[in-house]
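Q: Can I see a sequence and its folded structure?
A: Here is a first one.
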Amino acid sequence: MAVSVKKTTNKKKKKKNENNMPLVNTRAVRVVLGLFFGILCVFTVISLISYVFTWAKDQSLISNPNVIQNSFEAHNSGGKVGFLWADFLISKLFGIGAFIIPVFLGAVSVYCLRIKKVKLIRLFFIILSGAIVFSVLFSYIFSFTSMDSMFGKGAGGSYGYFVNQWLCAMLGNVGAGGVLLLVLFIWLTLLSKKVAIKFDNIMFKTFHSRDKSDNKDIKSDVEQMEDMGPDVPEIIEEVVEESDDELRMETEDNEKAELIEQKKTTDVRDKEVELVVEKNDNDFFSNLSEDEKARLFDPRLDLPSYKQPPLSLLEDYREQWYEVSRDELDKNRIKIVNALANYKIKVDRIVAKMGPTVTLYKIKLADGVRIAQVKRLEEDIALSLAAKGVRVITLTDAIGIEVANEKPSIVALKSVLNSPKFKAADMELPIALGITVTNEPFFIDLEKMPHLLIAGATGMGKSVGLNAIIASLLYTKHPSEMKFVMVDPKKVELSLYYKIEKHFLAMLPDADKAIITDTQKVIFTLKSLCQEMEHRYDLLEMADVRKIREYNEKFLSRRLNPNKGHSFLPYIVVVIDEFADLLITAGREIEEPIARLAQKARAVGIHLVIATQRPTTDVITGTIKANFNSRIAFKVNSMVDSKTILDQTGANRLIGRGDMLVISPGSDMTRVQCALIDTQEIKNLTNYIGSQRGYSHAFYLPEYVDNDSAEGIGEVDLRKRDKLFEDAAKIVVQYQQGSTSLIQRKLNIGYARSGRIIDQLEAAGIVGPFGGSKARSVLVSDFDSLDKIITSLDHY
């Protein structure tokens, strides 16, 4: 295959190196400019204010040709220079409208000092147009008063004076006034957020597209390869450097479009208008009319004042985002070509796609070269590059070689949650995981997965990944819509989430803590979840639907009767950290209910996320793998461990620190840099949620009594009935559910007392005997029959 090549001379290379040398310290220049414009802003304000009161006294200075050198003193607080500067802005230009000029000078100072983000181009147009508008407006207004000679040409300065004279001559006083009001209205409209966002987007696309086209022209130059033998053909190198900062820039440009005012508290941070991630309405709600929406039941009304946490609680880690240099790209390119040339593998083209921690080199092989040849050289290529994380993958039209960057960047969870693609996605249980090798935000819907297995060696990012999953759901779901069952055998990994117990956590009614650390309690909880699963399937059968989403839609539209036991069903996400420890202590008792839930619980909204740092076959068994099709693998120590998790190699070649491989049904394996959320960010998040009003207690799962330890109720004296016996009986009959936890929730009493009441109800013939994992049957179908039983009990 003939390839045209433009040779690069030494002179050109020398020039290129010279251009890459930093001539100045950019940060120092920025600080100097910031201080300069800050001082100029203050000086201008002082000079303008003083000019208003002293302009008549200093008029003699203007007629003197040597105003700077003469002995006369200026009355202006800014001295002679201040007077001349203020006279130029006010008298020669904009009159009172000149007072808007220091705003721009101050903004430039803020921009240079990086105190706050400022859109200088938009602000420049607003300030300039504002000065012009107010110049003409003040000239028009004061022309009807005795102050029309203010500052020589009037309150509008020379510019406003002449424009006003022309307008009045052309349209008359009334017409000129109408035009000025219209122009003022248009200027005020420019200040609105929506217009500002559109302007920013236009400017961003204009300059960004121009930058990318210029960049492409530079990077598409054909260069002669170095250190290559005479038998190796020279290649066309086409590196497409997608902006590493593109995702964050796009996020910034769309921030203002999503502003929602948060709850005002004593904390200054909470007084600001913050960004939140809003749940997209699904097709069911979007197809309803306004009247139909008004008749819907809203489960969020249980906590109407609940506010979703703002993204300001999270860090953006911008100072730890590094760009891949052209020198690094060229160096790796040459090494890759040389390594392949040693095995007589010819290359047509290389395209680089840069991610936060890994760069993907897409290699177009010459005709006749088989991809399998390159795959077999993975070890040799890794050795030649002398870099971490080298992995050879097969692409649709090329071979891909992933190489770790010399300086890995940190991906902030905030940037992924705030990305427009994440916000636009229609997901029930959205999880923001990180950024891919091609610099795209990566997120998944747990509801569709439907369960997730996470594995990796110690210290490779597994705990951070779990926290990113939990935080994503906390940011996107209301407490009424989702609950967590958290299992933490280590007792320290998930302890930070205790503060949200009354908002998002679920537990057994008799449990001491919402986050489960005891193995026996874990077994009971998993079996209770199986009981909850069967109960939900019964409700779906009664409602004649197949999935929880359809059931909740039917319930929200008031087509299901709560008196028949129907209620809104929140999603339940079961998070189990260090699954291996549980298997060591409980074994089959843990694996059986997990396998049962994994097989059946998806349709009723129960989803499992289990994690382990021991990816061995005795932990990730065939049963687990068969029911967890979606898996995340962080770096592991061996090829065997990688195959245990993913059924293929690759995880052993990751670089650690959150570098991971993700597989799910229907999609290819994807390499992702996990988003970071550290301990302080989790504390900020849980403190924000926990400080708000929550439910009276955690969400109670069905009570579970171990069959081996269950005993009969013994002798029950119905003459010593509990004071709440009659209320409990009515609740049981109303909901047709003989449940201790139901009585406990409705009457807000302890588990032991509700257990004694259920025993009394059994003795009275209102509920049936204990039935193991199944709820007790209710023997009374209506309140009339119940009244007869209670009346008969009164004769004891």
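Q: Show me another, different protein.
A: A second, unrelated one:
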Amino acid sequence: MKYFCCDERRRSLLKGQSALNGIDFLEVLDDPNGPAGLRQRRLYVYFVLPMEGNLPTAANFRIEGGERIDAIGVVAAIPGTALGSPPALPGPDLSRLMVVEVDRAGDFSTYTLRLVKATDPSQPPDGFDRLMSAVGFSFKAGCSAEVDCNRPQPCAPMAYIAPEINYLAKDYASFKQLMLDRMAVLLPQWQERHASDLGITLVELLAYAGDYLSYQQDAVATEAYLHTARRRVSVKRHTRLVDYPMHDGCNARAWIHLRLHTDAGPLELKKGEGVQKTRFFTRLKGQGAVIAPGKVDLEHLLAQKPLVFEALHDLTLRAEHNAMRFHTWGARACCLPKGATTATLSGHYPHLKPGHVLILAEVRGARSGRTSDADPSRRQAVRLIEVTPGSDPLGGLPPASPPASSPPGAASQPVTEIGWHPDDALTFALCISSEADSRWVEDISLALGNIVLADHGMTFVDQDLPQSSGPGLRSTSLSPATVPQPDPALTAKPATLTRPCVSPVAAVGLPRFRPRLLRAPLTQAVAFETDRPPASARAAMQVQSCDALPQISLRQAGDELSVWQAQKDLLGSGPDKKEFVVEVESDGSAHLRFGDDRLGSFPPPETRFLATYRIGNGVEGNLGSDSLAHMLTDDPSFATELDDPVIQSVCNPLPAAGGVAAETMEQARQYAPQAFRVQKRAVTPQDYADMAQQCAPDLQRAAATPRWTGSWRTIFVTADRKNAATVDDAFKKRLQQCLEPYRMAGHDLHIDSPLFVSLELEMAVCLRPGYLVHEVRSSLLDIFSNRLLPDGRRGLFHPDNFTFGQSVYLSPFMTAAQNMEGVASVTVAKFQRQGATNSQSLQNRRLDLARREIARLDNDPNFPERGVFRLHVEGGR
């Protein structure tokens, strides 16, 4: 019988004795530079032991095998010691060598060199081992080949007859019946079916386990598809495959106003870290504006279930910034119009800097003057970009209720000019002063300083306490908190190897470790960069829930420097990255998932984690104005008392905003399949125009024109900015950087300004008797202006009313003039491009513009080249 074995113990046995010898290995002479005619005809046969006594001759060697060339004969057998100067040999020990010469070379098949008796070819010569008296070889071993010469010889697998099994069995009853049927075949003598029988008990126990595993299989199959998945985590993983980021919600943000005692000096408000963060609470029973953590039980406060906000940045608080009055330059019945971006404050504020946030708020009723009648909707946060101190040499406001003819005071009044970001332009008209019931009401609106931005969520930090800590002390918020040892039951089955003699390495699978956070809901927040805050107050409140990250980090107990950070996914994490993913279920519970040492690192066994995290998320944080009333801080300077507390009040003048609930599974099922249908390249000119408007929100419209510039195609993108803003170099660079990822290969990109076409309009208006000429003329000039009117309407020639290639019609102008009260008739004498010599546009009642042209009529005497509007008013009085 022929065996295939994976070791060489027989060879070792031969080397350890002296009675028997055997063939060790064979080499074929295949040197093209060797002796002529001997290539592939000389075989170097090495034996295990030195050759002594009767040496084998040519009659004792036989060559077997061959396909095209067979019956190869042995012509000589020469001992190695008899060679004079042999060519390069496999080894230096010539006493173990026999050189066998054959009559011809063989083919590419495998041959066998066998050592036999001359009289009995079925037996080896005396003194030679039977198993080691033959060796396989190839005459073409020295030829180039693309395969391994040591080809494996695997053993044939054992035949296995599978039993007949009903694979439709899926529940307890069918599993039980299946096993009983099988046992009837294997043990026909066992016929007991009573429930108390031990065999029946074991069958029922296995049927129960099979029913449970069958349910798990069905659950896995259910979660494998987007439309059938029942767990939120499964839906989120499916949507990630199509690049749809299913979000877990976002926390809310709020502007908080702190009012200091008038005698208090500057105070440094620190946002803090960990449990020392500065926190703001909704109203609590029996608490003042400032809560000192050493004087109250925090758990008792949390038992009242308040909403908690935490400061996002540091701020220096000053009493003079509590509430700042507006300076109206001695005028009365004033208001800041809708769209205003500048104002004047009464007094000098040397510590008011660009970047500070103010809340412009109505604090009194415009008619009654009572604080209870103030309109809470007349409040808006603005971020300053300009603060310029100055003075009013003619004095400040007149006395509270003087005669109507009283002039302002003559003393010089210090003032501060402020300007805020255009994105924070007032969305309503803010009343400063008014006249009601024959008296003047001043300071209807004020500018509130000491504004801090805070977001929803309370920070918890696990303490490294002993496991046997007393009740009420939680050393960790994770369950479990310690990484277990690998489970031998999770050992991966080794893959089938091509070399059966190589022992496969069984890989032990990673332990199952998906700890659950014991508190909920986990905060999802967008990072706030204190060194690069948002340019405007509006931008600070406009956060995208898809950019929010779970606010949790882990540190290993006993190793404070080993910190693990939460990420959206681990697709971009390397094997050494200490990162993990938070998976939130529909009930708000959160589980942590770590990497597999390929995409993200897996923590070592017995690692114990301590968590730092925040609780509070979603629309719950969108509380109304004036809901926050308390501040909790560890800074002792805030607890110092004068005649009154140093912090007199804490409130949020504006409602909190930005809180978004977690996306539901049904929403993800509807939106995710279409998520990949997003155009991320620009091919046609319209593609470039559309992408430009997405890149620059302040663009009213963009137009793209392809041109051949001599070497390649260039796309000229013409930008029409809102409010006729200049297309400067900074804007061009910003827009070009945004468009670069969408640019098609082979296209060059250039940003340019639009072509403005100045208009010339001449109109004659006839008034009805009794109407004042100067009043009607003034009203018409306001309507036919390029400004934003006090009531929020645009003038007819406002830059945002015109864009690329838009034809200008005469009828809207005539209609606007005719609708003015007191106007009897309207006649247009001229309607054309400025400087034109024909009246074609007036006759057609329409002025056509090219695709890159934009109409303009500023009617500015300083710049007559930007368009002229001539108005002639007749009649009236």
